Task: structure prediction
Amino acid sequence: MIQTQIDDLRARPVPGQQLFINGRREEAQSGQTIEVFSPIDGARLTSISAGDEADVDRAVTAARAAFEGNSWSRIAPAARKRVLLRFAELIEQHALELAVLGVRDNGTEIGMALKAEPGSAANTFRYYAEAIDKVYGEIAPTGENVLGLVHREPLGVVGVIVPWNFPLMIGSWKIAPALAAGNAVVVKPPEIASLTLLRLAELAAEAGMPDGIFNVVTGRGSEAGQALALHMDVDVMAFTGSGVTGRRLLECSARSNMKRCYLELGGKSPNVVFADAPDIATAAKVSVNGIFRNAGQVCVAGSRLLVQSSVYDRFMDELLKATDMLKVGDPLNVETNVGAVASFAQLEKDLEFVAIAEREGAKRLAGGNRILEETGGSYMEPTVFADVTPEMTLSREEVFGPVLAVTRFDTEEEAIAIANSTVYGLASAVWTSSLSTAHRMVRAIRAGVVHVNTYGGSDITVPLGGFKQSGFGRDKSLHALHEYSDLKTAWIAL
Result:
């Protein structure tokens, strides 16, 4: 029984975690560590090495030497493919171990964690492994006395900084195409969710990854993260996280070697329900999952719900009914629908947004409180606010918690204006039976992803990224390979 296996893995102690540099575990040079507490029960889980500038420099130096040594960048694409396919197999073999380890670290409910973390990571590495020997260069249409060739070459050392909500999935979206293209990587995981990426590095070595090609430096963002962004020998920074940190990375690029920065900076995604939605009950249930899964800690979460007035009351009845059926609790229980908020600091921010919404005049229909305090963990009720106007804080700022803002609209034009009224443009959804309405909305909404009659569920074959202040990087699909390679022209006189 899977619950028994989960409980066995939960009971395992987690030893103190070291950095992973040049194919082996190493202590931070300072000897400093960071204590890690589980959001499940607030208890100490383990410690991680507090890497700093010196450790980042060691990792980047190892990555540069490995890259220049050609043991990865210059081997036949088919050889890299074999290693990455083996890597994907190992992730699948250790899927439950990785999922439980990650849940103990950041509180995601186990059902979602299994699919979204090791499940997605294995699929991602397999996808880019299979793509390696299927991406060609070009022959330019030149005159007969010249041969023009366009080569794709790896960039060198790629720095990766990932968030705490899905470190394995989002990390793999960046690490896999970077490795497939022939680069070396240095990953800085989040302080509160580093464990799965450290384990991933060990599995990479077991799969046959050359030493120095895959490095992980844990530590604080203000120290290890900044050092990575400022390092003169890092060629690319790939980042998912807050806009504040994204701006700092751009500043670091300008202050250092003008490295490329690919940023995915979150969103405030509109979920638009028209009166002719195919099935109101289904739309409501999917919308509930679209905001409350992983306690709302999803960058593409449908945190703004726009409902056409003529079906508003009926839709809200279904939405509140579906919300009330959610089971919040122990994320390592397979029956739990919503796990813990990843940290007490994040929980405090979420509760402050509730207080702000009430002060600004929004109407609380459900939730809004911390619950299960007796467990010692950081849990919050799924929260629904109605009468939210586009000017309110809850409409404009990313909460990154289980808080839904609901707004009425009357016309399609009004829905478009409200949907586009934030500085973000990451994801969105439209519910309608009209093909014409769907196509108009897809064109009109300024977002990198527009779902139609669903929310979420896209796979590795399509890109993910945003417009406006949601950033300009693109994860997933073959398009991501282009962000980790460079074009070189050969102009040959015949």
Notes: The domain at 270-459 is CATH 3.40.309.10 (Aldehyde Dehydrogenase; Chain A, domain 2). The mean pLDDT is 97. The first strand starts at residue 19 and ends at 21. The first helix runs from residue 2 to 10.
